[in-house]
């Protein structure tokens, strides 16, 4: 049986092929699954997808008609899949419920420190042999306050790094994490966290209730010189509202590894095409903003764990077993 994998990065392909060797053949495509590419999957019982694939009603219907019975998502997030439609069509959907939290937490701090210490600006200058320090002044993190919105596994890893910096710790979550509390984290309301934090980092999943968690009101509640980091999901921030605040000269820095309209942009080379997204185009012009292309998870350790979990999801499906990774079970899976 051949599995069809969409949205496979060049570094990811040999790892996928090696992991599935001896189990199933796998055909790796660099294109993402959407309405245009869904017909390619005809005849494939199992389709493997990434977070930037779009599995709405029409795509799932096309897959079902073509014989696909299982979606194996290579990510923790699954907001790109219409689970109700998948269930109605009798398709099994599985995701990766866990991989290295350190990959994302460490990258979130990379973004935070890069904007704090003006690393991109400094690098651009030194390439032109401009070694002035004007405009490069940052701040010590020691003794300042880190606000962590979402204190699950990734939020906890982020908090441990903040604790290592010697920061005061504020947390917000529906359930308190005892490990974070043991580090000295004080759980407060979202409003209090935003008002008191020098650096705010987002580590919550994207759901209807968290969409635009950081909206215009939340942004206005933050300190004028705060740092905002998002390495979770783009939809957590109202980007247009963020641009408006940046235009007003607010925030020491903003580090974004995700963007709410990233589908169709991130993971692709758009350098030779006209820029159609006015909001993103304006966002990247601010000197205190750093945008990366959803790469926080992209370490050898994390990707290997994601692929290993995906292989096990497929093997479990074929054997009729279920695990915590299954989002939509069927009689076959």
From TrEMBL:
Pfam family, one: 2-Hacid_dh_C
InterPro entries documented for this protein: D-isomer_2_OHA_DH_cat_dom (IPR006139), D-isomer_DH_CS (IPR029753), D-isomer_DH_CS1 (IPR029752), D-isomer_DH_NAD-bd (IPR006140), D-LDH-like (IPR058205), NAD(P)-bd_dom_sf (IPR036291)
Keywords of the record: NAD, Oxidoreductase
Residue ranges of every copy of the D-isomer specific 2-hydroxyacid dehydrogenase catalytic domain listed in the record: 6-327
Keyword Repeat: no
Domain D-isomer specific 2-hydroxyacid dehydrogenase NAD-binding positions: 112-296
EC number: 1.1.1.28
Homology family: Belongs to the D-isomer specific 2-hydroxyacid dehydrogenase family.
Protein name as it appears in the record: 2-hydroxyacid dehydrogenase
Organism field: Streptomyces yaanensis
Lineage, uppermost ranks: Bacteria, Bacillati, Actinomycetota, Actinomycetes, Kitasatosporales
């Amino acid at each position: 049986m051949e599995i069809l994998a969409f949205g496979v990065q060049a570094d990811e392909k040999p790892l996928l092929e090696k992991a599935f060797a001896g189990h199933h053949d796998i055909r790796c495509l660099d294109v993402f699954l959407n309405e245009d590419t869904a017909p390619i999957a005809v005849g494939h019982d199992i389709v493997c997808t990434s977070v930037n694939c779009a599995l709405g009603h029409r795509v799932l219907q096309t897959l079902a008609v073509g014989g696909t019975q299982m979606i194996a998502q290579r990510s923790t997030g699954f907001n790109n899949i219409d689970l109700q439609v998948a269930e109605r069509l009798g398709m099994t959907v599985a995701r990766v419920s866990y991989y290295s939290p350190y990959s994302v937490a460490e990258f979130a701090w990379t973004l935070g420190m890069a904007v704090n210490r003006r690393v991109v600006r400094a690098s651009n200058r030194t390439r032109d042999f401009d070694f002035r320090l004007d405009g490069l002044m940052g701040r010590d993190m020691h003794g300042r306050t880190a606000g962590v919105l979402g204190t699950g596994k990734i939020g906890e890893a982020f908090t441990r790094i903040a604790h290592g910096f010697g920061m005061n710790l504020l947390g917000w979550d529906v359930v308190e994490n005892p490990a974070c509390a043991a580090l000295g984290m004080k759980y407060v309301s979202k409003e209090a966290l935003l008002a008191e934090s020098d650096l705010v980092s987002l580590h919550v999943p994207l759901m209807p209730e968290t969409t635009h968690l950081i909206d215009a009101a939340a942004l206005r509640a933050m300190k004028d010189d705060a740092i905002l980091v998002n390495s979770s999901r783009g939809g957590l921030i109202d980007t247009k509202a963020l641009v408006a605040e940046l235009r007003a000269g607010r925030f020491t820095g903003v580090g974004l590894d995700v963007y709410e309209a990233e589908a169709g942009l991130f993971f692709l080379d758009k350098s030779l095409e006209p820029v159609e997204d006015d909001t993103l185009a304006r966002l990247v012009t601010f000197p205190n903003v750093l945008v990366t292309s959803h790469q926080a998870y992209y370490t050898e350790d994390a990707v290997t764990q994601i692929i290993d979990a995906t292989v096990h999801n497929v093997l479990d499906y074929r054997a009729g077993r279920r695990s915590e990774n299954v989002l939509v079970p069927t009689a076959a899976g």
